[in-house]
Amino acid sequence: MTQKDLxxxxxxxxxxxxxxxxNFHVGAAILDEKGQIHIGCNVENxxxxxxxxxxxxxxxxxxxxxxxxxxxILIIGKKGxxxxxxxxxxxxxxxxxxENTIIHLETTNGEFTKRTIKEILPEAFDHSFLNx
Length: 132
Ligand code: THU
Fold this sequence. Notes:
alpha+beta, binds tetrahydrodeoxyuridine
């Protein structure tokens, strides 16, 4: 499984994005601990706050398909530009990541940079704050 495979998968999702309001298509592809790939796109709604981000859709797919941990996640927005995950998506990725999870972000056309979840979300809200 290469970065190219994840890019291809994210591209497939990106094409399907339902973004009639922002016209900003996002695609995400996750590689889980079993080697399965899960994809997601953003899905907007006429009631603007109800929309769903691509990363969240991809995590839902991973969960429903029995994946537990994100080993890699690659996110694409506008071609040749970075699409850093929004704050909510960072939190969602964190919940299903480990310290080795790699977040692949597009830089310039055809190139990607790698981040860890700790780098993009240094202070996550985790289960330890909850009284379970
Ligand atoms: N969007 C994502 O899908 N993921 C992000 O991390 C950032 C933003 C979507 C939400 C909305 O449909 C569009 O991009 C513009 O904000």
